Fold this sequence. Notes:
Blueprint (H helix, E strand, L loop, with lengths): L1 E6 L2 H10 L7 E6 L9 E2 L7 H10 L4 E4 L2 H5 L2 H7 L4 E2 L7 H4 L1 H11 L6 E4 L2 H10 L4 E5 L8 E4 L2 H13 L10 E5 L4 E10 L3 E3 L4 E2 L2 E3 L3 E4 L4 E4 L6 H21 L5 E11 L2 E8 L6 H5 L7 H9 L14 E9 L15 H5 L4 E5 L2 E4 L2 E4 L3 E9 L2 H12 L7 E2 L6 H4 L3
Parallel strand pairs: 1-2, 1-4, 2-3, 4-5
Antiparallel strand pairs: 6-9, 7-8, 7-9, 10-11, 10-16, 12-15, 13-14, 15-18, 16-17, 18-22, 18-23, 19-22, 20-21
Helix pairs in contact: 6-9, 7-8
The structure holds adenosine monophosphate and glycine (GLY).
Amino acid sequence: MEVLVIGSGGREHALVWKIAQSSKVSKIYCAPGNAGISQKAECVPIKAENIPELIRFAEEKEIGLTVVGPEVPLTKGIVDEFEKRNLRVFGPSKQASRLEGSKVFAKEIMLEAGVPTGKCEIFEDHNKATQYIKSQPVPIVVKADGLAAGKGVIVAKTKEEALEAVELIMGKRAFGKAGDRIMIEECLVGEEASILAFCDGENFISMVTSQDHKAIHDGDKGSNTGGMGAYSPAPVINEHMMETISLQVFQPIMNKMKEKGMPYKGVLYAGLMITESGLKVLEFNARFGDPETQVILPRLKTDLIDIMESCIDGKLNETNIEWENEAAVCVVIASGGYPGNYKKGELITGIKEAEAIEDVIVFHAGTSLEGENILTFGGRVLGVTSLGANIEQAIDKAYGAVGKIHFNKMYFRNDIADKALKYL
Ligand code: AMP
Ligand code: GLY
């Protein structure tokens, strides 16, 4: 069959890389893709949000399966639109993807389903939110209800910061309609981990654990980014904890979504905080994580197309998913200045040399081709990923590969996956 992958980041490169290994796939298209993706897929210049054009393309090429990477087309209802036209597509429906698209909706579902999560209050009124903050202890967390490209959550250390966050979201409307409502949540303390699960509307199968690094600088300092690196497994989650997560998070959410007439199909990503009093859900995403996917899929032994098809057909309970025991580490190389302003168009060298190292894969996140040359084209540029017998070896290999790559003002964190070492 021919497959269409939607998106253009490191996550989509990892999806294309894994899908290309399937014996069922004769050709892959990616809309819009990037320079790295173009080595394995034909990139088509259609934006991920342009649903009518994507439908037209999928119909014209008789695409057998479309895989949606990012959240925006999901929350806009791309899956419903494809299904209406009998086009096979992997991802949650518009209603179901509200688990990511509205933090208030996600909170309501969690409370109804009895899923452990932080205490919060919801406000539509700027003044009431301001008054509430004045009455609360700090630190405190202010969240825009809707999608804000990962920037809608502010962990405020002082009341001033919290009030500024409310002003940014509700006053200045920095994230537009996403700021119609805000959630003010207690600040949870602990170690974070992500668990993703394949879901078929009724059943789910958890993937291996992973953890990303959101802050720009070493030691989790500085502003939040889309993710500066990731590792898998995340040893903060042991087998017992994994069972608890299935019982307390995934099973009740699957049941509740089905009961509400919006069965959840696709990948459900649970962002967790492991606190002293147990686990709490921070957020859901309705898709694969980026850069978590870059460390999860290299560990997947099973054909990803088989898994996706069984999710669509409600047959996950007949599917066996196998994983490599090896650990994976992904170090993101970003453009200097990211997550603020940065320059595009810098010449990248050394990717081939990095990839020549055994068990190293260089996923492209923001690159473009100019003739033979690969240029920077985004804030996050590359995700240098390696597999190793354990996390320590994977770290060494990944940084060895990073050392081969060069472009003007490149930036990366030096401590990716160090958090995992204390468990060894
Ligand atoms: P979210 O998009 O909700 O996952 O938030 C982004 C990041 O903000 C998370 O990965 C956490 O680091 C942090 N965060 C979110 N909610 C809380 C909370 N209630 N307490 C502490 N940190 C939080
Ligand atoms: N790495 C976090 C996310 O994909 O939202």
